[in-house]
Please model this.
Amino acid sequence: MDEIFELSKFDEYREDNRLEVKRARDRLPDSLWETYSSFANTAGGCIILGVKENADKSWTTTGLKDVEKLRKEFLDALHNQNKTNVALVSDSDITDYEVNGDVILVIKVLKARREQKPIYINGDMWNGTFRRDGEGDYHCTREAILEMLRDQTEDTPDMKVLENKEIKDLDQDSIRAYRIRYNASHEGHPWTSLPDDEFLVQIGAASDETADHRIHPTAAGLLMFGTYQRIMREFPSFLLDYYEKTDPALRWTDRLASHNGDWSGNLYDFYNKVYQRIAVDLKKPFRLDGIYRIDDTPVHVAVREAMANCLSNADFFLKESVKIEKYPDRIVLTNPGTITLGKKQMLRGGKSRPRNKVILNMLNYIGVGERAGSGVPNIYAIWEQEGYVEPTVDELSGREDTIVTVVTLPLVKRDQSPDQSLSEKGTEKGTDQRTKKNVEIEERIEKVLQLIRANPSISQSQIADRLGISLKQAKNATELLKQNDRIHREGSARNGKWIIDVEDVL
Model:
């Protein structure tokens, strides 16, 4: 544990999330154990006996009558299963000091490991589990306790096999889109030729280790490829929300929510739709490799990493939504649930324990996210290299005693004024070297794709009319999109429609 109590700073200290004072003149106060539980279940902390808090929040020593008696009393109770379920303090964690002529006792309480939580008192998990919020100890709700229990095991919640669900319950368009993207980056891999149900087994979206020996979706498969209504039956609090807030006078200027009803509402489609909305305003260099536009940057990589981290660490049982917000000066990603490895380890990197391991794997398979525990440090490193204000990671209180993890990616340069954001459109150094022809081709392709996205039934002649270009140019643009495996046509030229195969998300 880092040093959170230094005797030299005694007069400066105030109670906070990791410091608590108690009088305890000649006996241990009952409230000590509530604080022990709350520190252990949150971030650790120090309980200081022989001190009172004044009305102005300053501290005054009251002293202890018999410090060794209290030390023994505490250790004896600590190892009594009727008092607390796990002993996180050893004799070396208890230190006495002399302050203003009084003796005080400082007890360092370690943060419990995930497999130890919840830490509770009085032999009662449901009523004896506490958490720290500010300078207070609060009863954990049943939801918060269940979250701790879910995080105990190596098996993550998304591994659960849903034998009450069938592969047909999943959104087939989502599966198809995922497979197109997977195949594009795994040419020749044996999984690319598998039937859908067997492919889903290989990526963890389904399992054949079932009582009826049939293939059924896993929780990860349902979350990634299901439909909102079917997901809700397994995860009643499930909600994905995206807000775009570019005008302070409006509540939002664009919103996408899983319950809208005009799209699947699953994680895979949410990722694609939201990333497109975010990436469109990120500066990108202009390069063409043949007909392929090369516009990926480290910032794009970092944003995808942050989104993968957000989705793979969400606790979908909690009554909080996954929420991504885009502002002119920042991107904010919120997921329900605590940081499973703790904030310090998350920032340090080197270890990885996503709350939804299978979901992260499925994103990794298509080039999104980092497996090795270096994702968040990579984000920080990229932001540093690009000269942007440092990102922040916070654990905040949500609704009904839940904890949410909030990652903020500032879109402002360190040497810029706040209104000069990353989303300001401009050209990079190499812009002057662009050819006029390449620019025209790229812009025309993007405009055509926008028209198709808005109206899949649009004809090539209608595209030409809408854009004010020749029919030949419209045909060339759609042909280039088809060659890039971004679209294909289903049905006849007169009655068919365009299908978007791969959105520009990588």
The chain has three domains: 7-140, 238-430, 435-500. The domain at 7-140 is CATH 3.30.950.30 (Methyltransferase, Cobalt-precorrin-4 Transmethylase; Domain 2).
